[in-house]
Amino acid sequence: MANTVITVEKTKMSILNKVGHYFKWIDKWVFEAAEKFVVAFGLLALSIIVCAIVVTRYFFDYSPDWSDELPRFLLVWITFFGMSYCVRKGEHVVIDVLFNKLNGKIKKTFYMLIVGICFLFFVYMTYIGYQMTVRFFTSSQTSVALGISMGYMYLAVPLGCFLTAKNYLHIIIRNIVNAQLHTDLDERRDS
């Protein structure tokens, strides 16, 4: 009987390890890749477009109709996906005067409380952003210069907030599973 219980427990742990492995793979190759691509491509495109606009205005006294709108759209997408990427890397700006004075379990509990509140906030923002995006897609409101649906610009809000909430949830889970405090998603630090 005892051997059967041990075998069942080992099987459960094996399944959990496999599921965890798949979740880590999806997180790395889908979510993190999307964050990196949107931020890197967006910054590159924004830099090239703004430089080109400056050159055409200065040398040719010409400004394309879309010169104000496209950089703004790119900046919105970079902001919301960059927010998620900063949570992943633990690089958000923080006021940590009180946090640095805490030690041990109190420090971890305080951090988990803050991350939990952030998680709930971004779940709510994902919901609100989704409603707003659907409203813009169904209203058929288009941007003035580009002529595309405003829903495409606002789509960055629910996607970025979803990824941010997912990253906060991932940090919460890492801190529950591991004894030490984790403020980012660097898997190499797991014990």
| Biggest beta sheet summary | none
Q: How much is the average pLDDT? A: 89
Give the helix level as a range of percent.
Answer: over 70%
Radius of gyration: 22 Å
In total, the number of domains comes to 1
- Number of extended strands: 0
Distance between the termini: 32 Å
Q: Provide the β-strand percentage band.
A: under 5%
Q: Spans of 5+ residues with little confidence (pLDDT < 50)?
A: none
Q: What class would the helix/strand composition place it in? A: mainly alpha
H/E element order: HHHHHH
Shape: elongated
Total of DSSP H or I helical runs spanning 4+ residues: 6
Question: Would you mind describing this structure in some detail?
Answer:
With 191 residues, the chain is mainly alpha-helical. It has one domain (2-189). It has helices at 2-60, 69-89, 97-101, 104-139, 151-154, 156-177. The longest helix is centred in the first third of the chain and has 59 residues, at 2-60. The relative contact order is 0.11. The model has no long low-confidence stretch (mean pLDDT 89).
